[in-house]
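Predict structure. Chain length: 201.
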Amino acid sequence: MQKTNLVHDQPEAGWETLGSEIHFTTPHLTVATDQVRTPSQSARQWSVVHRKPAVVIAPLTREGKFVLIREERIPIRAAIWSMPAGQIDANLEPDEAAVREVARRELREETGYELEPGAEMVPLGHFFSSPGMTDEHCYLFLARPVRKSAAGAEHDTTEAIVDCREFCADVVRQMIADGEIRDSNTLSTWARLVATGEIFP
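Prediction complete.
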């Protein structure tokens, strides 16, 4: 696959997995204790949560507003604002077109918005969500411009999305400053949007 901003980096040279004890597996993650030899040290043991890669989408309307969802999150016992996101089947990851299609699908299902004809799904690279605990990496996209689809949102039965609204950039910026937006996917995507000059800080 051609190297682009979308492609997840391959592991660095000098790392060797000596063994892995799997404790349990669900459709979304695997918890294991890995025995690994690193380039600078002898073998080390580490508890790891292996997760599928994911996509995060920053939907931007023609009027310059970002579409955010408010979703109930069981681990933190709270409903928080975030950009739409979703997991990728691991077998799809090498296919850039398939990853983009997952981003389009998650946008439509979680928000009820879609790309306008001729719109673009701009890749913004990827990030590691919590590299001390998990190998999960998330691909970031700017979807512009988007519009409400005729079909509306199609929430997965495992999701609890309780609100979806449009916010101008200044409001999103203030929500971040006030701690109202605390989702790592959204904060990372916003930082990448600022760093790439797509929006101004």
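Summary: The chain has a mean pLDDT of 91.
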